[in-house]
Amino acid sequence: MRLEPIQVTSPSMPPIGEYMDEISSIWDSRWLTNTGLKHQALEAEICRYLDVGNMALFTNGHLALEAVLGVMELSGEVITTPFTFASTTQAIVRAGLTPVFCDINLGDYTINADKIEALVTEKTCAILPVHVFGNLCDYRKIHAIAQKHGLKVIYDAAHAFGMKVGGLGVGALGDASMFSFHATKVFHTIEGGGVSYSDSALSAKFAAWRQFGMFGKEDAEVVGTNAKMTEFQAAMGLCNLRHVDGEIQKRQAAVNRYRDNLAGRKGLTLCKEKQDTVYNYAYFPVIFNPKQFGNSRDGVAERLADRGILTRKYFYPLTSSFSAYQRRFHIEPTPVAERIAERVLTLPLYADLSLESVDRICKTVLEGAR
Ligand code: T4K
After folding, report:
1. What is the separation of C-alpha 125 from the centre of its chain, rounded to a whole number of angstroms?
2. What's the pLDDT at 63?
3. pTM for the model
4. Which residues pair with 262 in a beta bridge?
5. Which residues of the chain have pLDDT under 70?
6. Which of 33, 43, 173, 189 could pair with 233 in a Cys bridge, judged by C-beta atoms 3.0 to 4.6 Å apart?
7. Mutate to test the pocket of ligand 1, among 85, 185, 311 (most ligand atoms within 8 A of CB)
8. 313 lines ligand 1 (CB under 6 A)
9. Residue 308 CB–ligand 1 contact under 6 Å
10. Is 92 in the pocket of ligand 1 (CB under 6 A)?
């Protein structure tokens, strides 16, 4: 019997009738984009859901991150992590800033806060850590360093939508946090992204930045681009937001099943959950120790692919090794990040992934151990 292929992820979809209802008013108004009513409603709803004071929406998460770096008018060096998606580092470089790569923790793969201060120079303007896979950075230590040296803290929270720590929405941490609403994310607007930020004075600047740098209709007062979310994207967001709690619960059930199958297996390391954190179960990364497990990360990925199960090597290679950056920036070695990037594999995870499929994935992984 041929088994159904399993994708690494699959977008959450609202009932089609609900989306049709939501978009029908767009036909009446003929207002398709440029911060329309759906956009405004979604901005307010996301503020409420994330428990943050300010939110600016963009056509994707990457441009949302570029917007933060743009409106804060930063220049110089940004201390960041190489263990991330291309977007984080590309946003820094496209904003005319220099990435300075800091190593990561062995336990949660976020930036190693104990190694940040040694990288601070007179040119440093910001720290840009990533809550990678929904593992929250050591924000207390990061904020103390930033305060001591007068640096901005901008979180790449692309993976952290809806998460809470100590009862606080993660978007309230630091000066700003970028969330991705890409189709593959826990909450999505097809393509989309948003920034939560602490300084309300930035609202007009964000609006101008995504509208060609124009506050009004004639002059472009700042350098900007076109990064507006359309009304169809916002409508998808309004629908998906009504269902996101249920989708996260379904993801949690899949993660629990993975843990039941894989926890404690020799040669496999799973992320640990912290007591004071509310998770969104965005990804399920596993670290394969080839000697102890008896098969390498690449061997496992190949074996799964041969059986129709698609995985991703998030995040391999490190962004610091991208050819676009070689001979352009001084790149410090980050041995822990290198080791994790060589061994990590994210297994399929999405709300509609059945528990039987999780069992099939785990069985295939474990039978591959030699
Ligand atoms: N910062 C971080 C830390 C990020 O991880 C990301 C994005 C960003 C910033 C930037 O945010 P955005 O500008 O994207 O909003 C995916 C996503 O495209 C990307 O959003 C995400 N991170 C990254 C980690 O993963 P790919 O190229 O690896 O995946 P892709 O698009 O091939 O999709 C994976 C699987 O999902 C497919 O094999 C099938 C399924 N799929 C995908 C799409 C697009 C569907 O079933 N339907 C779909 O419509 O990048």
Report:
1. 22
2. 98
3. 0.97
4. none
5. 1
6. 189
7. 85
8. no
9. no
10. no
